[in-house]
Amino acid sequence: MAVRRARAVRVLVDMDCVLADFEGGLLRSFRRRFPADPHVPLEERRGFLVCEQYRALRPDLADKVASVYEAPGFFLDLEPIPGALEAMREMKDMEDTEVFICTSPLMKYEHCVREKYRWVEKHLGPQFVERIILTRDKTVVLGDLLIDDKDTIQGREKTPRWEHILFTCCHNQHLALPPTRRRLLSWSDNWRGIIDSKRDASL
Questions:
Q1: pLDDT tops 80 at residue 74
Q2: How many other CB atoms are found less than 10 A from the CB of residue 84?
Q3: Is 163 helix (H, G, I), strand (E, B) or coil?
Q4: Residues whose CB is less than 8 angstroms from the CB of residue 108 and which lie 6 or more positions away in sequence, other chains included
Protein backbone atom coordinates (compact mmCIF):
# COMPACT_ATOMS: atom_id res chain seq x y z
CA MET A 1 0.00 0.00 0.00
CA ALA A 2 1.41 3.37 -1.02
CA VAL A 3 2.21 5.82 1.75
CA ARG A 4 0.27 9.03 1.38
CA ARG A 5 2.61 12.01 1.22
CA ALA A 6 1.58 15.04 3.22
CA ARG A 7 0.69 18.13 1.22
CA ALA A 8 3.27 20.88 1.58
CA VAL A 9 2.31 23.64 4.01
CA ARG A 10 2.46 26.99 2.24
CA VAL A 11 3.59 29.85 4.49
CA LEU A 12 3.15 33.46 3.38
CA VAL A 13 5.33 35.92 5.28
CA ASP A 14 4.76 39.67 5.26
CA MET A 15 7.78 41.91 4.86
CA ASP A 16 7.41 45.24 6.69
CA CYS A 17 7.48 44.83 10.50
CA VAL A 18 7.84 41.05 10.09
CA LEU A 19 11.09 40.71 8.14
CA ALA A 20 12.19 44.35 7.91
CA ASP A 21 12.04 46.86 10.77
CA PHE A 22 9.76 49.43 9.17
CA GLU A 23 8.66 51.07 12.43
CA GLY A 24 12.14 51.44 13.89
CA GLY A 25 13.58 52.68 10.61
CA LEU A 26 10.75 55.17 10.17
CA LEU A 27 11.14 56.65 13.63
CA ARG A 28 14.91 57.03 13.28
CA SER A 29 14.61 58.65 9.86
CA PHE A 30 11.78 60.94 10.93
CA ARG A 31 13.69 62.24 13.94
CA ARG A 32 16.79 62.75 11.81
CA ARG A 33 14.92 64.74 9.14
CA PHE A 34 12.55 66.64 11.44
CA PRO A 35 14.35 66.96 14.79
CA ALA A 36 12.27 69.94 15.95
CA ASP A 37 8.92 68.20 15.39
CA PRO A 38 7.12 65.95 17.89
CA HIS A 39 7.23 62.21 17.25
CA VAL A 40 5.47 59.06 18.43
CA PRO A 41 7.75 56.74 20.48
CA LEU A 42 7.49 53.10 19.48
CA GLU A 43 5.97 52.15 22.83
CA GLU A 44 3.13 54.60 22.14
CA ARG A 45 2.37 53.48 18.58
CA ARG A 46 -1.26 52.46 18.07
CA GLY A 47 -2.96 51.45 14.85
CA PHE A 48 -1.58 50.05 11.62
CA LEU A 49 -1.52 53.37 9.71
CA VAL A 50 1.30 55.44 11.12
CA CYS A 51 0.19 58.52 9.19
CA GLU A 52 -3.11 58.60 11.06
CA GLN A 53 -1.44 58.66 14.45
CA TYR A 54 0.90 61.44 13.38
CA ARG A 55 -2.05 63.38 11.91
CA ALA A 56 -3.80 63.15 15.28
CA LEU A 57 -0.66 64.47 16.94
CA ARG A 58 -0.56 67.43 14.52
CA PRO A 59 -2.20 67.56 11.07
CA ASP A 60 0.90 68.59 9.12
CA LEU A 61 2.93 65.68 10.49
CA ALA A 62 1.07 63.13 8.34
CA ASP A 63 2.65 64.43 5.14
CA LYS A 64 6.03 64.71 6.80
CA VAL A 65 6.07 61.11 7.99
CA ALA A 66 4.84 59.92 4.58
CA SER A 67 7.68 61.81 2.92
CA VAL A 68 10.10 59.73 5.00
CA TYR A 69 8.91 56.29 3.90
CA GLU A 70 8.29 57.43 0.32
CA ALA A 71 11.87 58.69 -0.01
CA PRO A 72 14.46 56.79 -2.06
CA GLY A 73 16.55 54.43 0.02
CA PHE A 74 14.09 54.07 2.88
CA PHE A 75 13.00 50.48 2.27
CA LEU A 76 16.41 49.32 1.13
CA ASP A 77 18.08 50.57 4.31
CA LEU A 78 15.69 48.93 6.78
CA GLU A 79 17.32 46.59 9.29
CA PRO A 80 16.13 42.97 9.50
CA ILE A 81 13.86 42.01 12.38
CA PRO A 82 15.88 39.87 14.85
CA GLY A 83 15.70 36.20 13.92
CA ALA A 84 13.73 36.78 10.73
CA LEU A 85 16.42 35.87 8.22
CA GLU A 86 17.36 32.70 10.06
CA ALA A 87 13.71 31.66 10.29
CA MET A 88 13.12 32.20 6.58
CA ARG A 89 16.17 30.17 5.62
CA GLU A 90 15.11 27.37 7.93
CA MET A 91 11.58 27.39 6.54
CA LYS A 92 12.90 27.17 2.99
CA ASP A 93 14.80 24.02 3.89
CA MET A 94 11.99 22.36 5.86
CA GLU A 95 10.49 19.25 4.33
CA ASP A 96 6.97 19.62 2.92
CA THR A 97 7.03 23.39 3.43
CA GLU A 98 6.75 26.22 0.90
CA VAL A 99 7.59 29.74 2.02
CA PHE A 100 6.86 32.94 0.12
CA ILE A 101 7.26 36.63 0.93
CA CYS A 102 3.85 38.23 0.51
CA THR A 103 4.06 42.02 0.69
CA SER A 104 1.95 45.01 -0.32
CA PRO A 105 3.62 47.97 -2.07
CA LEU A 106 2.81 51.59 -1.30
CA MET A 107 0.37 53.34 -3.60
CA LYS A 108 3.26 55.67 -4.40
CA TYR A 109 5.43 52.77 -5.50
CA GLU A 110 8.21 54.56 -7.40
CA HIS A 111 10.95 53.52 -4.96
CA CYS A 112 9.16 50.97 -2.77
CA VAL A 113 8.77 48.10 -5.24
CA ARG A 114 12.33 48.12 -6.55
CA GLU A 115 13.79 48.48 -3.07
CA LYS A 116 11.74 45.60 -1.65
CA TYR A 117 13.24 43.32 -4.30
CA ARG A 118 16.72 44.65 -3.62
CA TRP A 119 16.27 44.25 0.16
CA VAL A 120 15.30 40.60 -0.27
CA GLU A 121 18.26 39.90 -2.57
CA LYS A 122 20.63 41.72 -0.20
CA HIS A 123 19.53 39.91 2.96
CA LEU A 124 18.15 36.57 1.75
CA GLY A 125 19.75 36.03 -1.64
CA PRO A 126 18.43 35.57 -5.20
CA GLN A 127 16.60 32.34 -4.38
CA PHE A 128 14.16 34.35 -2.27
CA VAL A 129 13.64 36.99 -4.96
CA GLU A 130 11.81 34.26 -6.88
CA ARG A 131 9.54 33.79 -3.84
CA ILE A 132 8.24 37.36 -3.68
CA ILE A 133 4.50 37.87 -4.13
CA LEU A 134 3.71 41.57 -4.52
CA THR A 135 0.01 42.36 -4.15
CA ARG A 136 -2.34 44.98 -2.75
CA ASP A 137 -4.85 42.22 -1.88
CA LYS A 138 -3.45 39.31 0.11
CA THR A 139 -6.83 37.60 0.41
CA VAL A 140 -6.58 36.32 -3.18
CA VAL A 141 -3.26 34.54 -2.52
CA LEU A 142 -3.50 30.83 -1.70
CA GLY A 143 -1.70 29.61 1.39
CA ASP A 144 -2.10 27.84 4.70
CA LEU A 145 -0.61 30.56 6.90
CA LEU A 146 -0.11 34.29 6.56
CA ILE A 147 2.28 35.78 9.12
CA ASP A 148 1.50 39.50 9.13
CA ASP A 149 1.57 42.43 11.57
CA LYS A 150 -1.65 43.98 10.26
CA ASP A 151 -4.42 43.05 12.66
CA THR A 152 -7.25 43.04 10.11
CA ILE A 153 -6.68 41.99 6.50
CA GLN A 154 -9.55 42.47 4.09
CA GLY A 155 -9.95 42.16 0.35
CA ARG A 156 -11.93 40.57 -2.44
CA GLU A 157 -12.05 37.17 -0.73
CA LYS A 158 -14.16 37.29 2.42
CA THR A 159 -12.79 33.98 3.72
CA PRO A 160 -9.16 33.62 2.58
CA ARG A 161 -7.62 30.16 2.43
CA TRP A 162 -4.88 31.06 4.92
CA GLU A 163 -4.95 31.40 8.68
CA HIS A 164 -3.75 34.84 9.71
CA ILE A 165 -1.03 34.69 12.38
CA LEU A 166 -0.58 38.15 13.90
CA PHE A 167 3.10 39.04 14.20
CA THR A 168 3.64 41.25 17.22
CA CYS A 169 4.79 44.77 16.48
CA CYS A 170 4.76 48.02 18.44
CA HIS A 171 1.45 49.11 16.89
CA ASN A 172 -0.46 45.89 17.68
CA GLN A 173 1.08 44.57 20.90
CA HIS A 174 -1.75 46.04 23.00
CA LEU A 175 -4.48 44.22 21.07
CA ALA A 176 -6.32 41.36 22.77
CA LEU A 177 -7.07 38.63 20.24
CA PRO A 178 -10.12 36.37 20.39
CA PRO A 179 -9.44 32.73 21.38
CA THR A 180 -9.62 31.63 17.73
CA ARG A 181 -6.73 33.90 16.71
CA ARG A 182 -3.02 33.14 17.12
CA ARG A 183 -0.03 35.44 17.29
CA LEU A 184 3.74 35.21 17.14
CA LEU A 185 5.43 37.35 19.76
CA SER A 186 8.70 37.38 17.79
CA TRP A 187 10.82 35.03 15.69
CA SER A 188 11.99 33.49 18.96
CA ASP A 189 8.41 32.31 19.51
CA ASN A 190 7.27 28.84 18.40
CA TRP A 191 6.71 29.46 14.68
CA ARG A 192 7.73 25.87 13.94
CA GLY A 193 4.86 24.60 16.08
CA ILE A 194 2.40 26.77 14.17
CA ILE A 195 3.60 25.33 10.86
CA ASP A 196 3.46 21.81 12.26
CA SER A 197 -0.13 22.37 13.40
CA LYS A 198 -1.11 22.98 9.79
CA ARG A 199 0.89 19.98 8.67
CA ASP A 200 -0.98 17.75 11.11
CA ALA A 201 -4.31 19.17 9.92
CA SER A 202 -3.53 18.29 6.28
CA LEU A 203 -2.97 14.58 7.00
A1: yes
A2: 20
A3: strand
A4: 70
